[in-house]
Specification:
single chain, about 280 residues, alpha/beta, 11 strands, about 45% helix
Length: about 280
């Protein structure tokens, strides 16, 4: 596993190359790829040039966001799908082989079974293209009850249900974006987590939960820094992931008010202090 920076999760909106400079000096080992900025740099220089920037900095690449609006109307979806091979090739050439999407915990138009079939129908072609270029697709579910209340029809919001969807897609390269926050807010226990295999986990998000709030009342965009409250068993979870041989990115996604108003460097350093602590307690340092 390696400590990976997901800039937007810390409120950072700086250009990718500026963030890369900060990663080199703050202890993070990797960072997510901004595919749009990478393409612009590759068009201006070359793919080899972009790759060299990360190689020379000694920074690994975490993941890239899958640029397919698979929830869109057919014409837009097909247009995005047609552009996916170009994106997948660029990411592969740069050495970034994880991409991410998310499923919502409900829908206002499709009942469960209809929505399930829609997800499989839309995600399978994208996963097949990704597979052709050596990519794994990380699927993130949304755990908090408050995030589901506005939907007319319920859908997936747990680890096990999302794994079932990954299996139904059936391409062999789809697994979890394993977010400890969404596991906690969907009432998934550490014992449940310990049923996972290395193949189930594509990407990892870590954070903590604010104290004094019942699980059902937790707000998705108000979390805590890793290890800040100790409500989510991060140390034990990280040890387990290490034990099963997970060797991919681990990215803090705290959405913490403590980072509000900080500079990009201050935000990264503050987050790294907390991440380092749980990393060492887990015996990973």
């Amino acid at each position: 596993m390696f400590k990976n920076l997901m800039p937007f999760a810390l409120g950072i909106r700086a250009p990718m190359l500026d963030v890369l400079e900060l990663v080199k000096t703050t202890g993070f080992e990797g960072m997510d790829l901004s595919l749009g900025e990478a393409k612009q740099l590759a068009d201006e220089h070359s793919v080899a040039y972009v790759k060299s920037l990360f190689d020379e900095a000694g920074v690994k690449l975490g993941a890239w966001g899958m640029p397919v609006n698979w929830r869109a109307k057919d014409a837009e979806y097909q247009e995005h799908l047609a552009g996916l091979p170009e994106s997948a090739k660029l990411a592969a050439d740069l050495g970034c082989h994880q991409t991410i999407t998310a499923v919502m915990g409900g829908d206002n138009h499709r009942p469960f079974k209809e929505n399930w079939d829609f997800h499989v129908k839309r995600l399978r072609p994208a996963a097949e293209i990704l597979n052709d270029y050596g990519h794994s697709l990380a699927v993130e579910f949304i755990g908090p009850e408050k995030s589901r209340q506005a939907f007319k029809y319920g859908f997936l919001y747990t680890m096990d249900a999302t794994l079932a969807l990954c299996a139904a897609i059936g391409t062999g390269n789809v697994g979890l974006c394993f977010d400890v926050w969404h596991n906690y807010t969907s009432h998934t226990t550490l014992d449940d987590v310990k049923k996972l295999s290395k193949e189930d986990v594509v990407y990892v998000h870590i954070n903590d939960a604010p104290a004094g709030i019942e699980i059902a009342d937790q707000n998705d965009l108000l979390r805590a820094l890793p290890g800040e409250t100790g409500i989510i068993p991060l140390v034990e979870t990280l040890r387990f992931l290490d034990d099963i041989g997970y060797d991919g990115p681990v990215a803090p996604e705290p959405f913490s008010p403590k980072l509000k108003g900080l500079s990009a460097e201050e935000s990264i350093r503050t987050t790294m202090e907390t991440l380092d602590k749980v990393w060492k307690e887990a015996g990973l340092a």
